[in-house]
Amino acid sequence: MKRSMMIFVLSLLLLAGSVMSASAQEIMAKSDKMMPDDQRPVVVFIRADWCPYCKRLEPKMADLVEQYGDKLKFVTLDITNQAATERSVLIAKEAGLAEFFEMNKTKASTMAIFKDKKRVYTLYHNSDEKDVAAAFEKALKE
Question: What is the pTM of this model?
Fold first, then answer.
């Protein structure tokens, strides 16, 4: 029940835009801290309010987070502005994604999936829900 409520709240936060994206990041960071031995693949989404691809993908991502929330961990890194990017640097560092974020922090609508700290899939500017779901499935099978 607690997990499904967290997924529901996270879904709402992803839809709310940049004001709420910091809160979504905090929820995801807290959930990761609660499960230190968690071996689920990590989905990283670099987003920005000004990104048209992000605007198309985020409603679909909310559904996918609900569908895959028990199988995958989700980390959202916001690059909407300087303050959001600075918060995301800290989140990425804490999640072990600092190098990836440093290399991609100017690329909104980038999604990567890491399994055992190895990047297994990357999507750029793709808002097709089927492609994203296929990437999730691929990460779960590897």
Answer: 0.71
